[in-house]
Automatic annotation (TrEMBL):
Coiled coil: none annotated. InterPro entries: HTH_MarR-typ, MarR/SlyA-like, Tscrpt_reg_MarR-type_CS, WH-like_DNA-bd_sf, WH_DNA-bd_sf. GO terms for molecular function: DNA binding; DNA-binding transcription factor activity. Keywords: DNA-binding, Transcription, Transcription regulation. The keyword Disulfide bond does not apply. SUPFAM superfamilies: Winged helix' DNA-binding domain. SMART domains: HTH_MARR. This is Transcriptional regulator. It holds the Pfam family MarR_2. Gene3D superfamilies: Winged helix-like DNA-binding domain superfamily/Winged helix DNA-binding domain. GO terms for biological process: response to stress. It comes from Streptomyces lydicus.
Amino acid sequence: MDRPLDHVARIQAEWARERPDLDVGPQGVIGRLHRLAGLLTEQLCLVYRRYGLSEGEFDVLAALRRAGEPFERAPGELAARTMVTTGAMTKRIDRLERNGLVTRRRSAVDGRGRVVALTRAGRELIDQAFTDHMSNERRLLDALPPGEAAHLERLLTSWLGRVEPPPGG
């Protein structure tokens, strides 16, 4: 028995009917990746919300934690490591600071610059949240057999390497 068409396959069939002159094959990959990304993001955000964080706030805390002792970075560096604008970064930092998870101070290197640092509460929160985040990612990935997951990682790594601009470029 054939499986019913998934959402993307139904869209492809409609476009193929309406525009038989176009190759709608790319939608099979791009459309499914797009849908999967949305569904995965929903599942990831469940963990972030459990800790009172948005996805962006989790990213900021994680970037600070990954920096290692003393768990601080300049706002511009945080923006680059989380792929957001400095304006969006400011809003995230403001909220995290109000919640006692980060502090801001003048840079010792450049008196005009600022440095954002994790507080003790921020470090404890991101350590707990990241532990749960990794368990959640494992749960999501376990929907695939290990060999398929490894193959998918290789394919995505290869494709991303061809599409993503090089660092600093």
